[in-house]
Amino acid sequence: xxxxxxxxxxxxxxxxxxxxxxxxxxxxxxxxxxxxxxxxxxxxxxxxxxxxxxxxxxxxxxxxxxxxxxxxxxxxxxxxxxxxxxxxxxxxxxxxxxxxxxxxxxxxxxxxxxxxxxxxxxxxxxxxxxxxxxxxxxxxxxxxxxxxxxxxxxxxxxxxxxxxxxxxxxxxxxxxxxxxxxxxxxxxxxxxxxxxxxxxxxxxxxxxxxxxxxxxxxxxxxxxxxxxxxxxxxxxxxxxxxxxxxxxxxxxxxxxxxxxxxxxxxxxxxxxxxxxxxxxxx
Length: 282
What we know:
Elements (H helix, E strand, L loop, with lengths): L5 E5 L3 H13 L3 E5 L2 H10 L4 E5 L7 H9 L9 E5 L4 H9 L4 E4 L4 H18 L11 H11 L5 E9 L1 H8 L1 H21 L6 E6 L2 E7 H18 L17 E8 L8 H10 L2 E2 L1
Helix pairs in contact: 2-3, 7-8, 8-9
């Protein structure tokens, strides 16, 4: 998160929007404002905010659609969203939560309560950057730390598994189905490494569609063969039951493996560049 956290206020009531902007700026935040949903989407694409305050009733597209589109974009798919709403019905709240909102606050709201909700959401988001929100596997920062330590060790094998076509799959079937694929692959990898007796493998994610596996020389071939075999067996089950062949978006997998003998490596970035170059279709 930036030194001054950035909040995007998406609110068409001018007095409310200006009040929120003035208050959070006085609290040390950077604030961007948008009164229209489409304008907000363009702003978020150019400058990714740390948190979004999103009114449900907007002049062009409603807040639910704004949230849906934000969640479909890689750069904003994990940005905390707090809905501002005058609606109290349970189903409306559930709809927003299903789309990935982290909280609701109902107008007229207590500004101190909203401040605390914003603070808590930002704290959770800061913690969550250490783990992937879908799989809870170690994410990029922890992976980088593990790779740095790996370079001081011996007899290791680093593997990389990439899911290709995941964005198109998500566009076709929705982000829930996309996340189900990612979660299923993560569980498969964890299951395979746990099958190797005495193996202390590390599994992490540098990206929603990229996994890394660190294992030792004794188990590397077994892990690689099992991953390849099970992906080929299971890929058909990732699609909705009614889908079979035709023009459906194709999920593919690429995997590579390198070891200490392929070095030396200048650092974790060089190590990741090497393993990505080593990937081949599964």
